[in-house]
Specification:
Layout: E1 3-7, H1 14-19, E2 27-31, E3 36-40, H2 46-52, E4 62-65, H3 70-73, H4 76-83, E5 93-96, H5 98-101, H6 113-116, E6 121-124, E7 130-133, E8 136-142, E9 151-157, E10 160-164, H7 172-176, E11 181-190, E12 200-201, H8 202-212, E13 216-220, H9 224-229, H10 231-242, E14 245-248, E15 253-257, E16 261-265
Parallel strand pairs: 3-4, 4-5, 5-6, 10-11, 11-12, 11-13, 13-14
Antiparallel strand pairs: 1-2, 1-15, 2-3, 7-8, 8-9, 9-10, 15-16
Length: 294
């Protein structure tokens, strides 16, 4: 059985997204046997990062979007088109919060009716839901964010619970949802002594990690001030305070979840790359034949 996460981007917030100081492309999750592929929160940079690692977006089986902020969804339409082979093949599934799928309270919908109609299904989720995403059990957790429909996720893997909290303010009730997690992927947008509304900083991360006590905590969704201050030092501060192994995520970092938890970096490639299923010039137009419009 496989459970692997490739971090296509570890940035978050409007300034990191605008500047692409860190990519904000979300996470690719490979799971199950045979392996299925889920893309969570395909924000800016997702497509570029997939090209860099030679990941064929046409092999994606599901797209999951936590909420209606651009750093979590803006590459979504193209990822959905890739999943459906340019919109020509009815395949894959889309999951999103109500603001993403339906629109609510002036936010969203984030995807056009056309893109919502390309996959086999498009499903809105809410806290308390338990999803079966290509035989991967996913529990939907409450968040406290400026998009009130935002959620976090518990992925119940054969090797323990891997949780992705998504953007939220912290309180003990938020934290208790994630007790029992082996891995806690935590959006720590700002550093120590820099609290902002609807997001976590190093101080609130320490409170949550100390409550949940995972085996591994990964800081992600790093805002521009966090990046300037140095995420590694902030993660070390959390580790020293809690005794929990804590690392600051890096773009294209890979987490393999098995008996052990292994971190590595994805191999990258330069130059052009075109997957095999992409359109080719028809034979009748080759070697000076009749010209067509492409």
């Amino acid at each position: 059985m496989t459970f692997r996460i490739t971090f296509l981007g570890t940035g978050g917030g409007r300034h990191t997204s605008m500047f692409q100081t860190r990519c904000t492309g979300g996470m690719l999750i490979e799971h199950g046997d045979p392996v299925m592929r889920m893309h969570v929160d395909p924000g800016p940079g997702a497509l570029t990062q997939m090209r860099r690692i030679r990941y064929d977006v046409g092999s994606t089986d599901s797209v999951v979007i936590s909420h209606a902020h651009p750093d979590h969804y803006s590459d979504g339409p193209c990822v959905i088109e890739g999943m459906t082979r340019g919109g020509w093949v009815k395949r894959g599934h889309l999951y999103g919060s109500p603001t993403v799928i339906e629109g609510e309270g002036g936010l969203g919908p984030c995807l056009s009716p056309y893109h919502l109609g390309l996959p086999i299904s498009s499903t809105a989720f809410r806290p308390g839901d338990v999803l079966d995403i290509d035989e991967q059990r996913v529990e939907i957790c409450r968040a406290r964010h400026s998009d009130p429909t935002n959620v976090g996720f518990r992925f119940d893997t054969p090797f323990g619970v891997v949780s992705y909290v998504s953007d939220t303010d912290y309180d003990e009730d938020i934290g208790r949802q994630y007790i029992g997690s082996r891995v806690l992927i935590l959006p720590v947008t700002t550093p120590h002594n820099n609290r902002i509304n609807y997001h976590m900083c190093t101080d609130t991360a320490i409170e949550m990690v100390d409550l949940v006590k995972p085996e591994l905590c990964i800081f992600t969704h790093l805002g521009i001030v966090m990046i300037e201050e140095g995420p590694d030092a902030q993660a070390e501060m959390c580790q020293d305070a809690t005794g929990v192994r804590t690392v600051a995520g890096k773009d294209l970092m890979v987490l393999d979840v098995g008996e052990d938890l292994e971190l590595s970096q994805a191999r990258t490639y330069d130059g052009e790359w075109i997957p095999e299923w992409a359109p080719k010039l028809p034979e009748k137009y080759r070697d000076g034949g009749q010209k067509g419009n492409f």
